[in-house]
Design goal:
The protein is of the alpha/beta class. The protein has 12 helices and 10 strands. The chain has helices spanning about 20-25, 45-55, 70-80, 100-110, 135-145, 160-165, 175-185, 205-210, 220-235, 245-255, 265-275, 285-295; strands spanning about 5-10, 35-40, 60-65, 85-90, 95, 115-120, 130, 155, 190-195, 200. The strands form 2 sheets. The chain has an 8-stranded mixed β-sheet, with helices on both faces. Strands 5-10 form a two-stranded antiparallel ribbon.
Length: about 300
């Protein structure tokens, strides 16, 4: 397979301000055997018209319009529509480095891996090995490594996902993508690490979201962490001594919202109690982790 097709899945909701930039970052790739699957999740702005206009000039673009049901459903639909041997996810407000597809493909093929993970955050440490077994990846999940934060910045072998029926959890409104990545490793997929920045966040959008007001969506963070912890204890007893770190990090993320309404203050107290009780099991993955844990 000398020139495999790569499917780029772009879920979008009301993305008229940035969807063209995201699509252009794929069109301008040095690797040209790709398809772009844009899943319009019930946008009420001009997203549909903008994508249609671009698609008329590029037969590699496929637009799927659906009623609004959330990003997980949109990504799952995109995965089911892929015709590529490999696939990757691109958020509509982000963009890819022009060599992203070419370099991730070389990496995943060279190491015969199921997933290639490229550098997304510039402050990630450089001292990583190149290939991880699925057990090593589970340990990274427990540590909450930046490598497994999100589904994007990664190239996946399509058949590996299909063989294990791996999709995004529906009905979950926060950290659904990190659970997707965890599920990949839990089902035995291995990853290769590519130490190059190939995925670019829209930091303005990301920062505005991080400052957004409290939402009950944050409860999903703890719910998913508890599910991960249960699954790991059942299948990977060798990690019993460190697995509590998953819930510590989840409670820290929940407490990261400082405007928790009074009716949910009991949740705040529960999170604080859990962190204090299990503080000996805390494993910092970044410098920010240490600062947040201290606070």
């Amino acid at each position: 397979m000398d020139n495999p097709k790569i499917s780029v899945i772009i879920p979008v909701y009301n993305g008229e301000q940035f969807i063209e930039t995201a699509i252009s970052s794929v069109i301008n790739q040095t690797y040209t055997n790709y398809e772009i699957i844009v899943v319009n999740d019930g946008s009420v702005d001009n997203t549909r018209e903008i994508v249609n206009k671009i698609a008329l000039k590029n037969e590699k673009i496929k637009l799927i319009n659906k009623e609004n049901a959330g990003v997980s459903v949109a990504r799952n639909i995109g995965m089911r529509e892929t015709t590529g041997e490999y696939l990757t996810f691109l958020d509509a407000d982000d963009k890819l480095e022009c060599t992203a597809l070419e370099l991730m493909l070389k990496c995943i093929v060279s190491y015969d891996a199921d997933i290639c993970v490229a550098k997304v955050l510039p402050n990630i440490s450089d001292d990583y090995t190149c290939l991880y077994t699925y057990e090593e990846c589970i340990k990274l999940c427990i540590e909450d490594s930046p490598l497994i934060y999100a589904c994007h910045g990664k190239l996946y072998k399509t058949q590996s996902l299909k063989d294990k029926n791996i999709e995004f959890p529906v009905g979950v409104q926060a950290h659904e993508d990190s659970y997707f990545v965890f599920n990949c490793f839990y089902n035995g997929l291995c990853m290769a690490w590519l130490n190059q920045e190939l995925y670019w966040y829209n930091t303005e959008i990301a920062n505005s979201l991080s400052r957004s007001s409290f939402s009950k969506k944050r409860f999903s963070i703890i719910d998913l962490a508890e599910k991960k912890r249960t699954l790991i204890k059942q299948k990977f007893p060798q990690f019993d001594s460190i697995v509590d770190n998953i819930l510590i990090k989840a409670h820290m993320a929940f407490l990261g919202c400082f405007d928790i309404p009074s009716k949910y203050r009991y949740k705040e107290k529960t999170s604080l109690k859990y962190i204090c009780k299990h503080k000996k099991n805390f494993i910092p993955a970044t410098r920010y982790d240490k600062k947040l844990f201290f606070l």
